[in-house]
Q: What sequence folds into this?
């Protein structure tokens, strides 16, 4: 039988230091590792290996993202709101970690040496449904809030007049108010992105992997970001650049970029935590 165990991407022992604060010791025995800057590349490499081992699964999730993108675009144009294309494209990344649950489950099963099919990957959504549902609501609220903020920014900078379709690009990027609009939108959008990235960094993979509650998962995710904020800021930037590249080729690039990032995010989770002393067991509700 072919060995299906995922390659080990855990940082060397001598690069790992455990947080010793009482707060972290209270998080179900799960410790946060301090990772080095070269780990981001290793997470992407491991994610690419997982994608190559299960291409049909990855492309299915990727195709879903592409299709969802086209549906959103069509809806915006039909409703006369094409000016929201860019902000909602960015907002899509706020909920992408939840869409990637099936990819986390795929990587988890590969790591455990278990059989994996598209049906098995869907089991990820059923492993901790209540807690995943709770974090899904949180991410959706961020998405809706960002959508409302984007609409308000257009109203403020363009005096309530929506740019017509034939001048939309010019008005958005090259008009007199474009620079102030783009800078303000980028700062506010960046704030949303940082918060969502911090709370979803390891929380969703952790809920797929462990019998743990959403509050603990969110706390650990924020701790991981705070402890490794320099490395993880670079990791977040890499995710944003890859996602943008996927979107700029008529969204078709998302068919590969999204599964790659989903698998890589699982390996980031595995690299950032030490569960050797965890009292939160791994979930075992699996579909045969």
A:
């Amino acid at each position: 039988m072919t060995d299906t165990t995922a390659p080990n991407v855990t940082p060397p022992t001598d690069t790992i230091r455990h947080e010793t604060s009482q707060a972290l010791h209270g998080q179900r025995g799960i410790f946060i590792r301090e990772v080095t800057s070269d780990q981001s590349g290793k997470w992407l490499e491991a994610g690419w290996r997982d994608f190559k081992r299960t291409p049909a699964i990855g492309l299915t999730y990727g195709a879903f993202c592409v299709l969802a993108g086209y549906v959103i675009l069509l809806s915006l144009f039909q409703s006369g709101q094409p000016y929201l294309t860019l902000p909602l494209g960015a907002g899509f990344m706020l909920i992408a970690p939840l869409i990637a649950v099936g990819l986390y489950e795929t990587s988890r099963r590969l790591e455990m040496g278990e059989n994996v099919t598209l049906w098995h990957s869907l089991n990820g959504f059923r492993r901790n449904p209540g807690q995943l549902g709770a974090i899904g609501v949180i991410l959706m609220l961020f998405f809706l809030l960002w959508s409302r903020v984007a609409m308000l920014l257009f109203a403020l900078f363009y005096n309530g007049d929506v740019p017509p379709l034939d001048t939309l690009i010019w008005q958005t990027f090259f008009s007199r108010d474009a620079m102030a609009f783009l800078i303000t939108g980028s700062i506010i959008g960046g704030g949303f992105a940082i918060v969502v990235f911090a709370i979803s960094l390891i929380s969703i993979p952790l809920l797929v992997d462990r019998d743990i509650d959403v509050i603990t998962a969110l706390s650990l995710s924020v701790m991981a970001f705070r402890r490794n904020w320099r490395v993880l800021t670079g990791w977040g930037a890499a995710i944003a650049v890859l996602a943008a590249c996927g979107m700029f080729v008529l969204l078709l690039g998302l068919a590969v970029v999204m599964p790659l990032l989903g698998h890589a995010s699982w390996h980031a989770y595995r690299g950032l935590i030490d569960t050797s002393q965890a009292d939160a067991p791994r979930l075992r509700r699996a579909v045969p």
Notes: The beta strands are 31-32, 273-274. Residues 1-26 have pLDDT under 50 and may be disordered.
